[in-house]
Amino acid sequence: MHTARFLIIGTATTLAIGLSAAPAAAAPDGDTIVTFTISAGTLDIVVPGTAAIAGGAAGLPTSGPLGPVTVTDGRAAADGTWEVEAEGTDFETGGGTPTETITDDLVEYWSGPATATTGAGPFVPGQATAAQSEPLDATVIAFNRTGGTGNGSATWNPTLIFNTPLANVAGAYVGTVTHSVA
């Protein structure tokens, strides 16, 4: 019995040594699977922190540039569509009485054309001309990207038009224009 056991162990060892010594066969070609990742970023908007528009006379329209507004789309998306909305508050001086207030329906927004763009568009202004300006008493479309793929950006310098009532008093009127992108 002892001999048979030795014989089986010896045969298994010889078989294992024979298999490990056989050379690997060469192939005519070989594939390597490669993965490359493009990271998705964010959709951001940068607006001027403050703006000072040259004054005018009561009863006459006054206008001036707000300053550059820039949207940067770093989402690397197959559909790079986005839209910017703008809205405003009343503009007030002093105590904000009726003669010290220019209501938001008397303040108009005019985006004008893009001053700079990158990436695929089209990039479309909400109000291409001054004749298309819209009052800020409701949300207005300031600018949008209607398609395109991948990253891109657009900058424009909107104009605000103040239709100041004749009864308004002199003073520095302050209000807010808010832009948002989605």
SSE arrangement:
Blueprint: H1 2-20, E1 43-46, E2 61-65, E3 69-73, E4 82-88, E5 91-92, E6 101-102, E7 107-110, E8 114-118, E9 123-125, E10 134-135, E11 140-145, E12 152-156, E13 159-163, E14 177-181
Antiparallel strand pairs: 1-3, 2-13, 3-12, 4-11, 4-14, 5-6, 7-10, 7-13, 8-12, 9-11
Can you walk me through this structure?
This protein is mainly β. It has a domain of 122 residues. Strand 5 and strand 6 form a beta hairpin. The N terminus is likely disordered.
Give the overall shape.
rod-shaped
Label the structural class. mainly beta
Q: Note the main sheet.
A: 4 strands, antiparallel
- Strand percentage, roughly? 25-35%
Calculate the mean pLDDT score and round it: 88
* Spatial sequence of strands, sheet with the most strands: 1-3-12-8
What's the helix-strand series? HEEEEEEEEEEEEEE
Number of strands: 14
In percent, how helical is the residue content? 10-25%
- Report the C-alpha radius of gyration, rounded: 34 Å
How widely separated are the two ends? Answer: 84 Å
Low-confidence spans: 1-18
| Helix segment tally | 1
